[in-house]
Amino acid sequence: MTLRSVFRSWMDHYFSDEEAVILLVVLVLGFTVVILFGRMLAPFLIALVVAFLLQGPVSWMERRRMPRLLAVFVVFLAFIGVLLALAFILMPLIWNQLVGLVQEAPRMFASGQQLLDDLQARYPNLVTPDQMQNWIDVAGREVTQLGQRALTLSLASLGNVLTLIVYLILVPILVFFMLKDRDRLVGFTVSLLPQRRELMTRVWEEMDDQIANYVRGKFIEIIIVGSVAFFTFAYFGLPYTALLAVVVGFSVLVPYIGAAVTTLPVAAVAGFHFGLTDEFLYVLVAYGVLQALDGNVLSPILFSEAVNIHPVSIILAILFFGGIWGFWGVFFAIPLATLLKALVYAWPRGIKQRHRQEAAETPVES
After folding, report:
1. Where does the secretion signal sit in this chain (predicted)?
2. Residues 136 and 116 sit within 8 Å (Cβ to Cβ)
């Protein structure tokens, strides 16, 4: 069997159905548009995520016989209230704490250098002077880069503020109309697809609830983990509580990696504030318990209906989609991995089932 015949057999097996070819074209066009015009379409994509998030409460109110338009208004007003609270209460607090942390970074660096000196004095065979100097040089470069980034951010603040204003205006408008005219928008999108779309319908039905549940579940997980971290750090009297709580909350977006990376700023702030004392150990133990409860209790409860994906696949999806789309690629890494898995499993079965169905419907000649 030649290579050409093998390739032709593979093409006939997977792409002999016109529906499979159309689905492939739709997926390629969709990914291409997002990759090329993702920054331009960012308000629309953010609004789409928020609409997925808010559709659950709207449907819950509809099931209790509330008119859809009234349910949309109630949920939308609650969303606007949360947005205003974030914009005028939480964001200024986080910004002030971030500025304070940047200003205090040189003192933290000096304290860390003193800690390394003490460590080298206590254990001269464990830590050599060259190793200690290398650590100090690396830390110094990181502190310098952090200061430069903070300066660049402050110089570009005007453009960031204008962009934020545009987002604060466009995103709520898009969210409102996506909720209000959901059926019309979905109907228009479906009308653009071909009439014969059993494979697309099967993949969409499998992914629709999972993506919506994933977005809502991640939002709930961020709120719960961030809130528990805030009260835990406040109980121990840790500085920069709101900033650290937000960092810990968003760390759940990156499974396995986020918790490990977030340990560094928590340990650094706790070590600088408490020193190597019992309070420092208590903070690390409490943080470890929080991450353990999130990974072993909260996540299985929130995502019990998600498709089981191997951890290696999740990490690869985070690296790949995060490298392409940044934050949103990391956020949607698991749903996109689930989509690819659904396509892999549905594609061959769908075509084989179609061939069997057509063979069964064909009358047998006598």
Report:
1. none
2. yes
Q: List pLDDT tens digits, range 245-297.
A: 998 988 887 777 778 888 888 888 888 888 778 888 999 999 999 988 888 78
- Give the list of residues 6+ apart from residue 303 with CB closer than 8 angstroms, or none: 213, 214, 217
Tokens of 152: 């660049």
How far is the C-alpha of 205 from the C-alpha of 176, rounded, in Å? Answer: 24
The pLDDT assigned to 235 comes to 92
Q: What is the pTM of this model?
A: 0.71
Q: Which two tokens stand for residue 232?
A: 């835990």
Interatomic CA distance for residues 22 and 166, integer angstroms: 36
Q: Which residue has the higher pLDDT, 87 or 155?
A: 87
Q: How many CB atoms are closer than 10 A to CB 209?
A: 10
The answer to whether the CB of 43 falls within 8 A of the CB of 171 is yes
The larger pLDDT score, comparing residue 223 to residue 360, is at: 223
Domain boundaries in the chain?
1-105+161-194, 197-306
Report the alpha-carbon distance of residue 332 to residue 318 in Å, rounded. 8
